[in-house]
Write a structure and sequence with these properties.
Elements lengths: L1 E4 L12 E2 L2 E2 L6 H13 L4 E3 L6 H4 L4 H16 L23 H8 L11 H20 L8 E5 L20 H9 L6 E5 L6 H7 L5 E8 L24 E6 L3 E2 H18 L3 E6 L12 E2 L2 H12 L5 E5 L8 H13 L8
Parallel strand pairs: 1-4, 1-5, 5-12, 6-7, 6-10, 7-8, 9-11, 10-12
Antiparallel strand pairs: 2-3
Organism: Psychrobacter fozii
GO molecular function: histone deacetylase activity; hydrolase activity; metal ion binding
Cofactor: Zn(2+)
Length: about 350
């Protein structure tokens, strides 16, 4: 097992979070990564500092204008000759019929909701979050001996809500999509299995018309729950991609056994696809005490989840994304990692 992170991911520190008609306390805090890093230390596992793979894999997925916005928005924001606040944040959402003339127009074009503000150091963390994920993909591209079957990336900010040209849901660059596309240089078929509490509408959108990348997601029903406009069962893909987008929206309030019933269905879909590599978007926000949870997974449930992924006997890259019960992130990640390192393997039905 290899584990990756980078200290620059700590620099992004959101101060604002506008959701459902009110300002709320930001939940995507640097302290999340501090707690996650305690898990490999407790298990005596090395954390590899990510190296710079470059911007090209990012631009293979995201629009150049959008990436330029993420990189330069803050400097443009503070250059305006009036008090604009400490972060790039908009209450105007106009992705179309918008020429992007001025930083407010650019924010209206590229920020999809009120949960993805951009501060002074946000781009640095956003960039290194993507690079952390890319390090795992790069290892697989250069590994001829099959020695790196399990890799875990401690990434923040997360990525699965980020669209090709829009930030939202605490996400800016879509790490899962970026590494899936990067892996296609060598591997024919990539499966993304997403078990975050929220549907990854960004991943769905990016690969919706493709059959070389399977996206399957287990998440809370999006009815009156983020992302609210995507993640329904009838969304199956289009064109060549029809059937390669498979959603398993859970009714709100399911228990752990019901959660795993949905996970098992997703795993069966992945097995049928028979991918070369699996990318797992892991959300600890399915934990029973998480403020975002609409289900009730226990700490030991994360060990079970890892065992199910291990039983697929494929290279797996894990992206640790959601999870906002900060005091439990260390314990929950330890349980998840132990599922990969334990001798006993759960056989998926």
């Amino acid at each position: 097992m290899k584990i990756y992170s980078h200290e620059n991911q700590m620099l992004h520190h959101p101060q604002s979070y506008f959701s459902r008609g009110k300002m709320r306390e930001p939940q995507e805090k640097p302290e999340r990564l501090t707690e996650l890093l305690k898990a490999p230390e407790a298990l005596d596992l090395k954390v590899t500092t990510a190296k710079d793979i470059g911007i090209a894999p990012i631009l293979a997925v995201h629009d150049l204008g959008y990436v330029d916005f993420l990189k330069n928005a803050y400097s443009e924001w503070i250059a305006v000759d009036e008090d604009m606040g400490k972060e790039v944040q908009t209450t105007i959402y106009m992705p179309h019929s918008n020429d992007g003339l001025g930083i407010l127009a650019k924010a209206a074009k590229y920020q999809a909701d009120g949960s993805a503000p951009i501060g002074e150091h946000s781009w640095t963390s956003i960039y290194w979050s993507a690079q952390t994920a890319l390090n795992a993909a790069d290892v697989l591209l250069n590994d001829d001996g099959g020695q790196n079957n399990i890799q875990v990336c401690l990434t923040r900010p997360a990525g699965h809500h980020a669209r090709k040209n829009a930030a939202g849901g605490f996400c800016y660059l879509n790490n899962a999509a970026i590494i899936a596309q990067h892996l296609r240089q060598k591997f024919q078929k990539i499966a993304i299995i997403d078990t975050d509490m929220h549907h990854g509408q960004g991943i769905q959108e990016i690969f919706y018309d493709r059959n070389d990348v399977l996206y399957t997601s287990v998440h809370g029903s999006p009815i009156n729950f983020y992302p609210v406009v995507a993640g329904h069962e009838h969304e199956r893909g289009e064109g060549d991609g029809y059937g390669y987008n498979v959603n398993f929206p859970m009714p709100h309030g399911v228990d752990e056994s019901e959660f795993f019933q949905f996970v098992d269905k997703a795993i069966e879909t992945v097995k049928l696809f028979n991918p070369d590599v699996i990318v797992h978007v892991l959300g600890f926000d399915v934990y029973k005490d998480d403020p975002q949870a609409k289900c009730a997974v226990s700490t030991q449930g994360f060990k079970t989840l890892a065992q199910k992924l291990k039983a697929l006997d494929k290279p797996v890259i894990v992206l640790v994304e959601g999870g906002y019960c900060i005091e439990k992130l260390n314990e929950n990640l330890q349980a998840f990692i132990s599922g990969f390192t334990a001798e006993k393997i759960i056989n998926n039905k």
